[in-house]
Amino acid sequence: MTIFGAFVAHFKDPKYPSMGFTVVYLKLIRLWQLKKVHYIVPCCICICFISQILYVLTSNRIVHFSLNMFQTGFFHLVFLKMAIYFSNLDKWMETLNWLSEVEIQQQKDDNLKPIVDRYIKYSNSVAWAFVIACYGTWLFNYGENVLMVIIQMETYHEIDPTYIWFFFLWPKDPLSGRWNVYPYILLQFLYAFCSVLYSVAFTSMCVSTMIAMAGQIEVLSEMFRRALDDGTEEEQYRNLISCYKRYVHILYIQNNLNDIMSPTLFIHLLVASINMSLIIFSLANSENISSAVYDSAWVDKSPRIRRLVYIMSSTVDKRIIFNAGPFNEVNVITYVQILKVTVSFYKLMCETSVPRS
């Protein structure tokens, strides 16, 4: 526990209470105080991404590979996220510095400190949970993928195409030959790792700033409530003016964040919607097997054939479905249930995640 505590403490920065994890993480991956050399890895990711686009456009299965890219959209979105980060670096620095400065000031106020501390704790907890989930997903999926490729190569001397998740421009079909398969799979593994590496940085920064902004809104509400409690009329007047100036500044920072995050949020919603529609569409098409038997030309066939058609139609009438955790099956009804659960989680988080004093 001492080692774990030291590890967690390493990702804290007293100058950035809510954004400490994000700032330390950015420093580790060299995205803080950028120099020209720090653009090398993002540029390599960009080249790999462009390679995939060219592969899709020059293949004879454009639709298939395009859908594959949407299904693995979590990894490809890093290109957009990095472009947005680099192009809005000044806005990010202004936002992080302002939020951190006001939080440090508010921690000196006995009335505001409990509110700020709750949001700081909440922000750090969410950031850690998100990072563990992202890297855990990457390690489980791609660790298993690499392991299965090695087993197939050493056993059958070729691999199943389903283990090629990304499609790079490659001089030779990467399905056979150790010196051909292993470099390709290594490139795929590194591409996914770098995607998670930079995607976590951008997403944790977005989440941390949004939580910090939520904290500032609650702090401002508390400031308005206490503006007229003490002091002379002149002091109360200045308190109200100070609260209003803080409100205007919060609106300014919120507009900056909206400009930065709006494109990424839209792409995330688009990818999630397409993936959900693909799942529902695929499963809906698998429910027509029984009726398809009767679509064959069985009417004028012999009794033996008609009997076999009857037996087969009665035995293949089982619907092919998949369960999604606590949900009975994945279909349109499931989609509506998921939306309801999302709203329920939202209400629960609003009421219990950061309780008021």
Automatic annotation (TrEMBL):
It is found in: Cell membrane. It comes from the Eukaryota. Its main location: membrane. The keyword Membrane applies. One of its GO terms (cellular component) is plasma membrane. InterPro entries: 7tm6_olfct_rcpt (IPR004117). The keyword Transmembrane applies. The chain crosses the membrane at residues 37-57, 69-86, 122-140, 189-215, 265-284. It is a multi-pass membrane protein. One of its GO terms (biological process) is signal transduction. One of its GO terms (molecular function) is olfactory receptor activity. Keywords: Cell membrane, Membrane, Olfaction, Receptor, Sensory transduction, Transducer, Transmembrane, Transmembrane helix. Belongs to the insect chemoreceptor superfamily. Heteromeric odorant receptor channel (TC 1.A.69) family. This is Odorant receptor. It comes from Plutella xylostella. The lineage of its organism: Eukaryota, Metazoa, Ecdysozoa, Arthropoda, Hexapoda.
